[in-house]
Design goal:
Elements lengths: L2 H15 L22 E8 L5 H8 L2 E6 L10 H14 L4 E6 L10 H15 L3 E4 L2 H4 L14 H12 L4 E3 L17 H9 L14 H14 L5 E3 H4 L5 H10 L3 E4 L4 H10 L1 H10 L4 E2 L5 E2 L5 H20 L3 E2 L8 E2 L5 H16 L4
Parallel strand pairs: 1-2, 1-9, 2-3, 3-4, 4-5, 5-6, 6-7, 7-8
Antiparallel strand pairs: 10-11
Helix pairs in contact: 2-13, 4-6, 11-12
Length: 364
């Protein structure tokens, strides 16, 4: 049964069994004060340390976590080292943390790369990993021995995706970058993008016109999904369609087994809300089954525990306020004021918890 059918079934069961709520009971919406009482999942974090500071704050704020391994190409911890941290955290806190692994593309040109990668992934799943992530090094960094960029619709990757689809193992894809990445810094729409690409010029595609365009990155991802229609796919960072809820809606309509997380793209959501709040609110309500809350926050063991936990709490509380209230807000992520969406509690429950259960099969 595909996920569209599952959503219809769940909706029908809910419609038949729920008790109507009256406005006077004030149960249609959550409030800011409900933050600590509601079970929540942050589906996109990176814990690369043995310390428990991250999960300590998560428990205080009633969050469970999905911590994710990334195939970095910049000299940071390799996939195996990250996975060890990931599984240590998941084993130590099995009620609160799930682990997503990754494969390494470093040995891409080896003739048995796909088979070796599948063996590695099998060992990760046997250890408890619940899915894999494909990072932006595919399409933006990794090159084959002929000097050509490896793109996500390469047939060699189809071998892996076919196995994962058959086993119903979800794939998180950070493919491409925000559309702002192809603009000069001064023309970017959000402060978070301005800061990131100023500090990471190697990924600022405006400075690398020889690289594929934004449209080519998105097209490669779409071709991969067309070839693998049964693959459970979660587009990280709003599927790199963060700039337009209209464009994102088109992909969600086209690909029944695609959802997206919201991680590190609240600035773009705030920006669109400032421009047209009702359009954004309507999008969240219409696609409530396909959206997963996430932040991209992480802990690599550096810095003080107090600063880390304060930042986590502040970020989580800011987003909760935006989604559950209609208050006028400001954020350092964008310029100007915007109004919270005040989504119905049924929508909040899906975005913050129930969709993680469905798409990842966790925390039930």
């Amino acid at each position: 049964m595909n996920r569209s059918c599952v959503f219809l079934l769940l909706y029908s069961l809910t419609a038949c069994t729920s008790t109507p709520r009256s406005e006077s009971e004030n149960n249609e919406f959550y409030s800011l004060d409900d933050f600590g009482q509601v079970e929540k999942v942050d589906t996109h974090v990176h814990i690369r340390t043995e310390r428990d500071a991250f999960v300590e704050q998560a428990r205080k704020d009633n969050f469970k976590l999905v911590t994710i391994v990334v195939d970095h190409s910049d000299g940071r911890e390799d996939v195996r080292e990250q996975f060890n941290y990931c599984m240590q955290q998941a084993n130590d806190h099995s009620d609160a943390i799930a682990c997503i692994t990754a494969f390494s593309a470093k040995e891409w040109d080896e003739p048995d790369w796909a088979q070796q990668s599948l063996q590695w992934l099998d060992s990760c799943f046997a250890a408890g990993a619940i899915g894999i992530k494909v990072w932006k090094n595919i399409g933006m960094v990794q090159r084959d021995q002929a000097g050509e960029l490896v793109i996500v619709d390469d047939p060699k990757l189809d071998t892996i995706f076919a196995v994962l689809a058959n086993r119903e193992i979800p794939v998180i894809g950070h493919l491409g970058e925000p559309k702002n990445c192809w603009l000069p810094v001064e023309e970017m729409t959000t402060n978070n993008d301005k800061g990131y690409f100023t500090n990471n010029p190697q990924y600022h595609m405006y400075k690398h016109p020889e690289m594929p365009s934004y449209e080519e990155q998105i097209a490669a991802r779409d071709r991969m999904l067309e070839k693998n229609p049964e693959l459970t796919f979660i587009g990280a960072h709003m599927g790199s369609l963060e700039w337009s809820v209209d464009e994102l809606a088109k992909r969600l309509d086209q690909f029944a087994n695609m959802s997206v997380d919201l991680s590190a793209r609240m600035g773009q959501i705030f920006y669109q809300t400032r421009e047209n709040r009702e359009k954004v609110r309507d999008f969240f309500i219409q696609y409530q089954d396909r959206l997963l809350y996430g932040t991209d926050m992480g802990d690599d063991g550096d810095g003080s525990k107090e600063a880390l936990q304060q930042g986590m709490h502040s970020t989580w509380l800011r987003d909760w306020k935006y989604f559950v209230t209609d208050e006028t807000m400001t954020s350092d992520l964008i310029e100007g004021e915007f109004q919270g969406l005040q989504l119905p509690r049924e929508v909040i429950d899906k975005i913050y918890h129930k969709n993680a259960q469905i798409w990842f099969g966790i925390f039930k």
